Amino acid sequence: MFVGTLEFTLRIENAFNLKARRNVVRSLKDRLRPRFNAAVAELSDDENVYNRARIGVAVLSNGHKHADEQLQQILAFVDTLGEFVMEDVKEEIVSI
């Protein structure tokens, strides 16, 4: 069994307060969870910064290739949203 993880920073250009930032992050999490059957969480790096958010995503798969495909699909999907810019992307797949 394989666990694939992504960790990335979002630079949210149109967030001028924490409420706007939370709305963008919540919307992203709500879109990723059901679409990719992934665990999604906001990580605590930049909780009080209104234009940045750190996001963690995890997927579980029976094969390394499938886990990698899922992560690539998630990255492509997030990149197409256009509400923010993805920075500092880290990807890892581990066998358990």
Compact summary:
By secondary structure, this protein is an alpha+beta fold. The chain contains 2 helices and 4 strands. The chain has a single domain (2-95), classed as 2-Layer Sandwich (Alpha-Beta Plaits), CATH 3.30.70.1120.
Question: Mind explaining what this structure looks like?
Answer:
The structure is a single chain. The chain is an alpha+beta fold. It has one domain: Alpha-Beta Plaits. It is built from two helices and four strands; from the N terminus they run βαββαβ. It has helices at residues 18-36, 64-81, and strands at residues 2-11, 39-43, 52-61, 85-95. The chain has a four-stranded antiparallel beta sheet with strand order 2-3-1-4, covered by helices on one side. It is elongated, with a radius of gyration of 13 Å. The mean pLDDT is 92.
Defining key terms:
2 helices; Alpha-Beta Plaits; 4 strands; 96 residues; 39% helix
**CATH class descriptor:** Alpha Beta
End-to-end Cα distance: 6 Å
| CATH topology term | Alpha-Beta Plaits
Radius of gyration: 13 Å
Number of strands: 4
**Percentage beta strand:** 35-45%
SS-based class: alpha+beta
Q: What's the SSE blueprint?
A:
Elements: E1 2-11, H1 18-36, E2 39-43, E3 52-61, H2 64-81, E4 85-95
Antiparallel strand pairs: 1-3, 1-4, 2-3
